[in-house]
């Protein structure tokens, strides 16, 4: 079977890290590049973190390309309180060997799209994709597929209405969802069904590998943050859902929908309005609605255990 040519557009981020390591452990995916964007932390840090993860995975063949340093119209309001000041839980790393390439993330994406069918997993704010649209008009219809982690059908996680990736750059998200690419969206109501617990962190530590130790270490403060704010240590695997969808599409139930982004609301800026009425049932925009967490966790454990 042909491997899926994939670029991960990302703002690592501890759950981005799990998504990236899941993708890099999976033979079904031909991961060509990590393109970085400002989001969880500034783009200097997300790019450094992408390089750290490439080293950790032992995959120097994967290109790291730096993207947008700020949302389209506002200043960055990051999520360092959730992901650590460095974006990866503030553990020790040595200076990475992996380098970033000279090409801007958006130009690299355009070139890879021109070279063959390309899938994009977008797991940070959508600034790079919006710039890709404006710099390369009509490019949306030449992309095989875009799987986005973002938005929420019901409650947000930054405000009562808005999820972080969309709230961070609503103008970019509005443009992306208005474009004609085939989008599959993994909103919070889906990603909150995908959680790791302390047993899973112990399993990762027990693997006795660098990947196992480091993933457990970066997820530890994420669990502690969740406990402070939500009263339990659930480790929510938001971004891994975009990769799980590519690896096991039958594992996530989806439905057709139309997605719009609120950019002006006084209390609802950054909210996604997900219209699931029957008229949109066969829309090329698909929204994830349900998954079985034990099946996902077993899948993730097996894939991360492949690192030696
Ligand atoms: C999303 O926001 C970020 O903090 C996470 O990395 C994820 O992409 C979840 O709302
Ligand atoms: Ca992310």
Keywords:
binds beta-D-ribofuranose; 308 residues; 8-stranded mixed sheet; globular; two-stranded antiparallel sheet; binds calcium ion; single chain; alpha/beta; 38% helix; 12 strands; Inosine-uridine Nucleoside N-ribohydrolase, Chain A
Care to describe what's here?
By secondary structure, the protein is an alpha/beta fold. It has one domain (4-304): Alpha-Beta Complex (Inosine-uridine Nucleoside N-ribohydrolase, Chain A). 38% of the residues lie in helices and 18% in strands. Strands 3-2-1-4-5-6-12-9 form an eight-stranded mixed sheet, sandwiched between helices. Strands 7-8 form a two-stranded antiparallel ribbon. It has a two-stranded antiparallel sheet with strand order 10-11. Strand 4 (119-122), helix 5 (127-135) and strand 5 form a beta-alpha-beta unit. The longest helix is centred in the last third of the chain and has 21 residues, at 210-230. The chain is globular, with a radius of gyration of 18 Å. It starts with a strand and ends with a helix. The mean pLDDT is 97. Beta-D-ribofuranose (BDR) binds next to helix 1 and helix 6. Residues 11, 13, 16, 40, 123-124, 239 line the site of calcium ion.
